[in-house]
Amino acid sequence: MSQVKAAVCREFGAPLTIETVTLAAPNAGEVEVTLAACAICHSDITYMGGGWGGTLPAIYGHEAAGHVSAVGDGVRGLAVGDPVVVTLIRSCGTCPSCASGAPVACESDVATSPITDASGAPVVQAMNTGGFAEKVVVSQSQVVKLSAGIPMEAASLLACGVITGVGAVVNAAGLRAGQDVVVIGAGGVGLNAIQGARIAGARRIVAVDMSEEKLAIAREFGATDGVLGTVEKPWQAAKEAMGRGADAVFVTVGAIPAYDAAPKYLANKGKVIMVGMPHSGAMSTYEPVMLAATGQGMVGSKMGDVVIARDIPWMVDLYEQGRLKLDELISGRWRLDQINEAIADTKTGSAKRNVIVFG
Predict the structure, then answer these.
(1) What band does 149 get if pLDDT is binned at 50, 70 and 90?
(2) What's the CA gap between 141 and 138, in Å, rounded?
(3) What is the pTM of this model?
(4) CA 134 from centroid of its chain's CA atoms
(5) Backbone angles phi, psi at 31, to 5 degrees
(6) pLDDT by residue (tens digit) across 24-78?
(7) d(CA 329, CA 233)
(8) Given this chain, do its domains 2-158+326-357 and 162-302 carry the same CATH topology?
(9) Is 2-158+326-357 assigned to CATH 3.90.180.10?
(10) Could you give the CA distance from residue 263 to residue 277 in angstroms, rounded to a whole number?
(11) Mean pLDDT score across all residues of the chain
């Protein structure tokens, strides 16, 4: 067992408290990772605000990287000292989804928590990670070994925001070179969808956002055009930029107006890739006859439909070649005791990714 500092959520919508918690030693098939960095994702903020329910107390944080500090029985391919990225994708490997190559859709209930607080009461390891802490114990299925050259702050972004955005393009949409793309939302995930479209060879990549500043950043990441979402009928401006409708529209924000408008950007046979996650109970409305008549479609994309053992090493290689921007995604570096300030900064919408740095 280890005693570690962690940021604990005890009430939805309230500031996190820095506490010393007890972390159990890794069981069979598990690894302990001493974290160097954990980025703050908007999904953490939504959960901590009560937008998706859940049980408290809990430790959130799921974009993490660090070094293996202990291994349980049966762990293969990892040793103490190895640099790794820690994801929330915990998979059993044997259910129909896992066996068919879709570990993000694992059907097994493999959720456990190795954490207790000072009173001995259990603390939820939120999203199978609990990364707002000095150490985590997770299933080996969640971990990918890294090359020694990638900085830990950059590596942490590969755990969610990068794989979600890039994966939505290459996996969920199966984008082909020469196709046209609209990305609604130029935040952390949206910028990575833009990067994914650029890497995949998209012809036109139109970013749509409410901020001119964020549209300028989107162009730095590969957007060919930018459209303000505040203009009347922004889908018309996007179609003018492309000369046609989009083959794929990526909704990377959890805003219902963005979902309502998304099909209006499409070309015939185009599809909306649903990435951003609104609060539970939020509803969107479509005119299904239009989708049917034009052969358009909508598909959800969870975590970019990635297979982490395949996709993360590929993305690390792209980063090391200079073809995938990671360092540029980091807006600020914060200590664990500054996490509430970092969360407040993230909520402003101006930050790409704030990262908690340990040690």
Answers:
(1) confident
(2) 8
(3) 0.93
(4) 20
(5) -130, 145
(6) 999 999 999 999 999 999 899 999 999 999 999 999 999 999 999 999 999 999 9
(7) 30
(8) no
(9) yes
(10) 17
(11) 95
Q: Determine the residue type at 215.
A: L
Nearest to 150 by CA among 302, 295, 319: 319
Cα 47 from Cα 303, distance rounded (Å):
16
CB atoms within 10 A of CB 359: 10
Where are the domains positioned within the chain? 2-158+326-357, 162-302
Q: Which CATH number fits domain 162-302: 3.40.640.10, 3.40.50.970, 3.30.450.20, 3.40.50.720?
A: 3.40.50.720
Three-class SS of the chain: CEEEEEEEECCCCCCCEEEEEEECCCCCCEEEEEEEEEECCHHHHHHHCCCCCCCCCEECCCEEEEEEEEECCCCCCCCCCCEEEECCCCCCCCCHHHHCCCHHHCCCCCCCCCEECCCCCEEEEHHHCCCCECEEEEEHHHEEECCCCCCHHHHHHCCCHHHHHHHHHHHHCCCCCCCCEEEECCCHHHHHHHHHHHHHCCCCEEEEECCHHHHHHHHHCCCCEEEECCCCCHHHHHHHHHCCCEEEEEECCCCHHHHHHHHHHEEEEEEEEECCCCCCCCCCCCCHHHHHHHCCEEEECCHHHCCHHHHHHHHHHHHHHCCCCCHHHEEEEECHHHHHHHHHHHHCCCCCEEEEECC
